[in-house]
Amino acid sequence: MTDTSPKERPAIDDLLEVMARLRDPENGCPWDREQTFSTIAPYTIEEAYEVADAIETGDVDQLEDELGDLLFQVVFYAQISVEAGGFDFDGVARRIAAKMRDRHPHVFGGGENERTSVSQTIAWEEQKATERAARAAKSGRKPSALDGVALALPALMRAQKLQKRAAREGFDWENLPPVIAKIHEELEEVEAEISAGSGQDRLQDEAGDLLFACVNLARHLGIDAEMALRDANAKFDRRFRAVEDGLRRKGKSLAEVDLDEMETHWTAAKAKE
Question: Is the full-model pTM beyond 0.85?
Answer without folding.
Answer: no
